[in-house]
Write a structure and sequence with these properties.
Belongs to the glycosyl hydrolase 9 (cellulase E) family. It comes from Corchorus capsularis (Jute). Keywords: Carbohydrate metabolism, Cellulose degradation, Glycosidase, Hydrolase, Polysaccharide degradation, Signal. This is Endoglucanase. There is one protein chain. The protein is mainly alpha-helical and about 500 residues long. The protein has one domain: Glycosyltransferase (Alpha/alpha barrel). It is about 45% helix and about 5% strand. It has 19 helices and seven strands. It has a three-stranded antiparallel β-sheet. It is globular and about 65 Å long.
Length: about 500
């Protein structure tokens, strides 16, 4: 379906729809969405680990983690800190890169002058994942930093002196979940760079295939191999089957190799495709996989994937109020609500899937019992969520730092809350940093574009560093939001 399908009357249709439902139609324009898009990408610069480039724009940050991997005689410098701490967790980092790549694949044509920055953000992560996947044969490095020690300190990444232990999965201690997610990230990124940098794309894809083979051949959950350092932070609660199907799906999309089609056909039933799960996150990939695979049925009539279209319909029906199969919970202000901790991660992934599925559907509809839900309805639902995050909510506050007149000032983030190395060049030690955690003053460094965990089930939000469930940002909240913002930046106003 052409990207401009909805552009001519989108704002009018959405506003009339929202008005008919008794909801406020806010005045966000394509310029507002473009501004939010730029900031959502800029956020990743604040999460960078390693040696920062000369064109670093969030210049309160400095170099960090320059010896990462040295204890194991490998180069693991670079990558991203996942949230407000200083650990590099492989599973959420890989998922972040998969979603950032998917955002560019589906909606890059609407990113205009932001596409280069989006690719730069993606490459910063995939460069690191390539190192982690190729440093040692039969091994994937999946984490740098001891989270238990890291969480006993409050210090900026430039000062950190907690152990930078290196953790890996191997043939003896498998981690199919994190390995298959890494394969998905590399495969998705290979599509992004296929035209602009074919040699890099080929390297990404070749590595993705090897990592996926490793994930599938040596099966096991990385939580079992590395329990004390990945749990409870990023335990693989859903197991590894969903990641294997997700990884195979991305490799099929990147290669169009029939061997991956056969793998999906042979393994789909045993890897969760028969179960309808209505959340999509760094841990559970089932809903995303079904939407991804439905594309080949909707656009290319690949009959083997009709099953995934049916399951995607069930997922969509669960989200649309009044439809048969509706199961979702919404706050009084209209925000999708899944969990008390970092709820906006589910809002951004859901918004992305709604828009992506709308794109795949074209003139087709979603069958919810006796009713049919159109692509336009999916877009309307996604827009409500996007606009809520950007300020159209009962609190009239943006949950993206640096966007709008009101936004969180006390986010749970070490680098943002502690004076920068440029303003305070003397080392701030582990314990001395806690004065900034408990301070009532706003964060001195604005982490532009960061989306926090968000409000509770009653639309209440505590702008409090100590309430990390609501005030901590994370890369995997932002990554799918990049795609959603790009869609509305390109399709929100008449042109």
């Amino acid at each position: 379906m052409a990207a401009t399908r909805f552009s001519l009357t989108m704002q009018m249709i959405l506003c009339l729809t929202l008005f008919s439902l008794g909801l406020f139609c806010n005045a966000l324009t394509s310029r507002d969405y473009s501004d939010a898009l730029a900031k959502s990408i800029l956020f990743f610069e604040g999460q960078r680990s390693g040696r920062l480039p000369s064109n670093q724009r969030l210049n309160w940050r400095g170099n960090s983690g320059l010896s990462d991997g040295a204890s194991s005689h490998v180069d693991l410098v670079g990558g991203y800190y996942d949230a407000g701490d200083n650990v590099k967790f492989g599973l959420p980092m890989a998922f972040t890169m998969t979603m950032l790549a998917w955002s560019v694949i589906e909606f890059g044509s609407s990113m205009e002058n932001q596409i280069s920055d989006a690719k730069t953000a993606l490459r910063w992560g995939t460069d690191y994942l390539l190192k982690a996947a190729t440093a040692t044969p039969g091994t994937l490095y999946v984490q740098v930093g001891d989270p238990n020690m890291d969480h006993k300190c409050w210090e900026r990444p430039e000062d950190m002196d907690t152990p930078r232990n290196v953790y890996k999965v191997s043939t003896q201690n498998p981690g199919s979940d994190v390995a298959a997610e890494t394969a998905a990230a590399l495969a998705a990124a290979s599509i992004v760079f296929k035209e602009s940098d074919p040699s890099y794309s080929a390297k990404l894809l070749q590595t993705a295939q090897k990592v996926f083979e490793f994930a599938d051949k040596y099966r096991g959950a990385y939580s079992d191999s590395l329990n004390s350092v990945v749990c409870p932070f990023y335990c693989s609660y859903s197991g590894y089957q969903d990641e294997l199907l997700w990884g195979a799906s991305w490799l099929h999309r990147a290669t169009q190799d029939n061997s991956y089609l056969s793998y999906i056909q042979s393994n789909g039933h045993t890897m969760g495709s028969d179960n309808d799960d209505f959340s999509f996150s760094w841990d559970d990939k089932r809903a995303g996989t079904k939407v991804l695979l439905s594309k080949d049925f909707l656009e290319n009539s690949v009959s083997e994937f009709q099953l995934y279209k049916s399951h995607s319909d069930n997922y969509i029906c669960s989200l649309i109020p009044g439809s048969s199969g509706f199961q979702a919970q919404y706050t009084p202000g209209g925000l999708l609500y899944k969990a008390s901790g970092s709820n906006l991660q589910y809002v951004t992934t859901t918004s992305f899937l709604l828009l992506t599925y709308a794109k795949y559907l074209g003139s087709n509809g979603v069958t919810c019992g006796a009713s049919t839900v159109t692509a336009e309805t999916l877009i309307t639902q996604a827009k409500k969520q996007v606009d809520y995050i950007l300020g159209d909510n009962p609190a009239k506050t943006s949950y993206m730092v640096g966007f709008g007149d009101r936004f969180p000032q006390h986010i749970h983030h070490r680098g943002s809350s502690v004076p920068s190395v440029h303003e305070h060049p003397d080392k701030i030690t582990c314990n001395n940093g806690f004065q900034y955690l408990y301070s009532s003053s706003p964060n001195p460094n604005v982490l532009v574009g960061a989306i926090v965990g968000g409000p509770d089930s009653r639309d209440n939000f505590a702008d409090d560093r100590n309430n990390y469930q609501q005030s901590e940002p994370a890369t995997y909240i932002n990554a799918p939001f990049v795609g959603a913002l790009a869609f509305f930046a390109g399709n929100s106003n008449p042109k």
